[in-house]
Structure formats: structure tokens, C-alpha cells
Design a protein that fits this description.
Rossmann fold; GMP Synthetase, Chain A, domain 3; 3 domains; globular; binds xanthosine-5'-monophosphate
Length: 507
């Protein structure tokens, strides 16, 4: 197993995901664990992540890591930390280097087991403020970028460092680097695969839930909770609760009924809580207030409906990225950007046992599990939809009439994307209703109606995202339909912001 130590970089979990997708089992652990706690897990190698912090500001790894005796690869902050520990010098750059850069393999690099398989020059993704200005005395420079160090190796101590991020999609040869580290340097065998994991998981659940009559779980129509319910239904009875908070899309519930119809062990119950949510949210504009209120009420509605003491096992669709994100926030690592509403929200009642079988898996792994479980692929390829639903796509004030406009626009947009084969060409696409009204002319009349934004992004994991390049010719007829058919909208704009600096959702 490889340990990926997290120092708060937005990309940490990608490192583990990339490794697993190549068959190397890896785990993310909090970066401030002591070297002895890490050694106790008997890793075959350690990767130090990047960080928003600088070396020497109180967030450094335990220096004793260097004496554990397994190979270490430092990335970005991890690279700077290793360089400094080994006698090199790190300095703050005059400007932050952010974006794609070219690196060149040096003479020493051609013989180095980490980088030797790279092309002579290759694109990498940089995101750093500090730089290594002097390499450690015995280190070899293996990669350079514009005449400056970009990677070093200290083979005698089995230590490597890279200034850039091999884990992100924008470093096209990054997977070669991770594979070389795992396979050639740490001697890991690439034998981890999901089919074997699923068999093992079902066996474990069968033992764990042997005497359990039924498991209760909340379902949203999204991929995670659908896979969760179906997985559990192969082991015991599942009472699946769908809370309708009033911010759902026109087709969410219908989809869910269609999927669950194939799995007789799942009993679906729909809780209509629309009025309860409106009572708390009518007129609310602040994004965090929307998110927190919806999260809190969701939990309450769920708990009220199932009734205290009436169930013993509660299943949650927590996946690995949720676990890591909340741990990072708890450790003061990654900056808190938004309150996501499905992260460990349910009240902890000692008598209720939590069942979280998807905890070890990343999103795309959950999708693959869904395929193995026989779930329709159109459901598994649904774009992600946030827990707070249309409420955070109705930018600004929440009002029933604005949500209705948005819901109609969303349904038309969805229908058009599918009809034009555009849905699967983008990772996530949606419309957001803007809190501005603009002047238009419809027929011979002046109109003064809402503007609607179309957002479409390409991503692998939502950590970074590019704007999907739909052509104007493809978008024009969709925009025309939105303006013509949705009363209350007279203008459509296309969002051209990548993540970062934007986020995918507007709120
Ligand atoms: P952002 O806007 O943070 O979104 O770039 C990243 C991804 O997460 C989805 N998202 C959520 N998912 N509960 C969820 O289950 C939430 O509260 C939530 N907020 C955002 C978003 O749609 C995108 O795919």
C-alpha cells in the first residue's frame, strides 16, 4: 500500500485516485500524523502532497519520515520540504507560477527510474509560490523548467521531488511518473481491482448485516445513493427515503422509480417536505445560509419521518472524497470553500449503527461498481447534482416563481442536451437563473425579464474544470428555445469561467 500524506492541497485525493486507477492501492492520511504512526501502517512508499502553506510555517511533515526507510516522493510543497530537509534552499518567488509549463529531462533524468520514461520535454501543471533555488548537496537534477529546477532525485536515500503536479489531468505524462514510482521504485504490484473489491465488500456486508431486518437510507436520485441502495439490497431489505425539498428537477423522482423497479428488495418512500423547506427559505439570498438551512432541515425531516428508535441501521452514501474533504477541513488544511450538504450530516445516535460501504471509493469507482451491480448506465452517467438542488442555481433570492422558471428552463436544457447528443460530451451542464433582469423586445413589445446562464464544464473529478467548448451553432437553438418557451426569461449567456478560479456551481 502507498500512503499519500495530505497537507491541504486541492489535488491530494487525485494522487490516490490516479494510483488506484492504475491498480496500485493507496490511501490518503492526514499529513500531520507522526512518522511512527505512518510506519505502523507498513507502506511500501510515501507521497507528500502539495499545500496552500509554505515550508516552515507550522504545517511541515514530521522530519522523521525521512528515516522510515521506504521511498518518498514529494510533490510541490512536499518537494520543497524534502529539498530543505536535505540541505537545499527554498525561497519565495516574486510571482506565483500557475498553469501549464514545459519541463525538460536532464542527462541525469535519462537514467533516473522516476522520470526516465518521460518524453524529452513534456507539459506539466505548476501551481506554486515558493521554489527550490538550491538543490540539496547530493541531489541530482532530473527535470528543469526554463532553466530552473523542476525535479530532483537522491537515489541513495530513495527520495524524489517534483515541483509540479503529476496527478492532475493537465500533466499528460503524469501517470507515467506515478506508475514508475509505485511499480519500479516501491515494487508494488498493480493488482487492485474493483470486481474483486465488490465481492469482498458483499461478503463483509453479509456478515455484518446477518441479523438485520432492514437498513434505512436516504436516496437523492444521484449516483452515490442509488449505488448504495442497490448494493445493500443484494444483502438485506432496504427502506429508501427520498426527501422532496422542493428544489428538485422535473425528472429526478421518475428516474429513481424506474431504476428501483428492477430491485425488489428496495422499498421507496417519498417524503413531501416542500412546505417545510419553503417556510425556512422563502426570500433567503445568501448561498451559505441556503446550504446550511437545507442541510439542517434535510436531516430533521429525515429523522422525523423514520421516527426515533424505529430503525437500527442507517446507510449513508459517503464516498472517499467526502471523508478526505471533511478531514482536511478538520485539520485546518484545505481552505473551506462551500458547505456541501451530504457530508456526515445525520445525528449520531449511539443506538443507530451507520453503514457506509462506499467510504473507500472515489466517484468514478462508485460508477464502475454501479455497472457491476447491473444499474442502467444512463443513471450512472447522470451529471452530478448538488444536494441543495436548484436552490443554489437560483442565484440570489429564493422565491417560488423563480424556482418554477428555473425548473422549466432546466428541463428544456436537459432535453436538448440529450436530443443533440451533447449530454455525454460534457461532464456537467446546467442552467442558473441570474438575479438580474434585462430589457428585450418580444414581438413588438418591450420585455423586462430574467437572464439565464448556461454552464457546461469538462472535468474528471470536480477538483478542476475546463469550460466545455460547445459551438455557438449548437448553443443558439437551445438558447432560442429557452427564451421562446420559458416565460420570464429573455436573455441567455454562456459562462466562460474555468475552475479555478471559479467553482462549478455559482453558489
Ligand atoms: P463546486 O461548485 O464546489 O462543485 O465547484 C463541485 C461539484 O460538487 C457539486 N456540489 C455538491 N454536491 N452536495 C453535493 O452532493 C452539495 O452541497 C454540493 N455543492 C456542489 C457540484 O455540482 C459539482 O459537481
Amino acid at each position: 500500500m502507498l500512503c499519500v500524506l495530505d497537507y491541504g492541497s486541492q489535488y491530494t485525493q487525485l494522487i490516490a485516485r490516479r494510483l488506484r486507477s492504475q491498480g496500485f492501492f493507496s490511501e490518503v492520511l492526514p499529513g500531520r500524523l507522526s512518522a511512527s504512526a505512518i510506519a505502523a501502517r507498513r507502506p511500501s512508499g510515501i507521497i507528500l502532497s502539495g499545500s496552500p502553506h509554505s515550508v516552515g510555517t507550522g504545517f511541515d511533515p514530521d522530519p522523521a519520515l525521512l528515516s522510515i526507510g521506504v521511498p518518498i516522493l514529494g510533490l510541490c510543497f512536499g518537494y520543497q520540504f524534502l529539498a530543505q530537509q536535505l540541505g537545499g534552499r527554498v525561497a519565495q518567488s516574486t510571482h506565483r507560477e500557475y498553469g501549464a509549463a514545459q519541463v525538460r529531462k536532464t542527462q541525469a533524468g535519462k537514467l533516473d527510474p522516476l522520470v526516465n520514461r518521460l518524453s524529452p520535454t513534456t507539459q506539466v501543471w505548476m501551481s506554486h509560490g515558493d521554489s527550490v533555488v538550491e538543490l540539496p548537496p547530493d541531489a541530482q537534477l532530473v527535470l528543469e523548467s526554463a532553466g530552473k529546477p523542476a525535479g530532483f532525485a537522491l537515489p541513495s536515500r530513495r527520495i524524489w521531488g517534483l515541483q509540479f503536479h503529476p496527478e492532475v489531468y493537465h500533466t499528460p505524462e503524469g501517470k507515467l511518473l506515478l506508475e514508475s514510482f509505485a511499480r519500479d521504485i516501491c515494487k508494488q504490484t498493480p493488482n487492485w481491482n474493483l470486481r474483486a473489491e465488490l465481492t469482498e465488500l458483499k461478503d463483509k456486508l453479509r456478515t455484518e448485516l446477518a441479523d438485520v431486518r432492514e437498513v434505512v437510507c436516504a436516496v437523492s436520485g444521484g449516483v452515490d445513493s442509488t449505488v448504495l441502495a442497490v448494493l445493500l439490497s443484494q444483502v438485506c431489505k432496504v427502506r429508501a427515503l427520498f426527501v422532496d425539498h422542493g428544489f428538485l428537477r422535473a425528472y429526478d423522482l421518475a428516474n429513481l422509480r424506474r431504476v428501483f423497479a428492477n430491485f425488489p428488495n428496495i422499498q421507496l418512500e417519498v417524503v413531501d417536505a416542500k412546505e417545510r423547506f419553503w417556510a425556512a427559505l422563502d426570500g433567503v439570498s445568501d448561498p451559505e445560509q441556503k446550504r446550511l438551512t437545507i442541510g439542517r432541515l434535510f436531516v430533521k425531516t429525515f429523522a422525523d419521518h423514520v421516527g426515533e428508535g424505529r430503525f437500527t441501521h442507517l446507510a449513508q452514501g459517503t464516498i472517499y472524497s467526502d471523508v478526505i474533504e471533511s478531514a482536511a477541513v478538520a485539520h485546518g488544511g484545505a481552505a473551506h470553500i462551500k458547505s456541501h450538504h451530504n457530508v456526515g450530516g445525520f445525528p449520531q445516535d449511539a443506538r443507530v449503527q451507520l453503514v457506509e460501504p462506499l467510504r473507500p471509493f472515489f466517484k468514478d469507482e462508485v460508477r464502475e461498481l454501479g455497472v457491476l451491480l447491473g444499474i442502467d448506465s444512463d443513471i450512472l452517467h447522470l451529471h452530478p447534482f448538488p444536494g441543495p438542488g436548484l436552490a443554489i442555481r437560483c442565484i440570489g433570492e429564493l422565491r417560488r416563481d423563480r424556482i418554477e422558471i428555473l425548473r422549466r428552463a432546466d428541463a428544456i436544457f436537459y432535453e436538448e442536451l440529450i436530443r443533440r447528443d451533447m449530454y455525454l460530451r460534457t461532464w456537467q451542464a446546467f442552467v442558473a437563473l441570474l438575479p438580474v433582469r434585462t430589457v428585450g423586445v418580444m414581438g413588438d413589445q418591450r420585455s423586462y425579464e430574467h437572464a439565464l446562464a448556461i454552464r457546461a464544464v469538462s472535468s474528471v473529478d470536480a477538483m478542476t474544470a475546463d469550460v466545455t467548448e460547445f459551438s455557438i451553432a449548437e448553443l443558439l437553438p437551445i438558447a432560442a428555445r429557452l427564451v421562446n418557451e420559458v416565460r420570464g426569461i429573455n436573455r441567455v449567456v454562456y459562462d466562460l469561467t474555468t475552475k479555478p478560479p471559479g467553482t462549478i456551481e455559482w453558489e
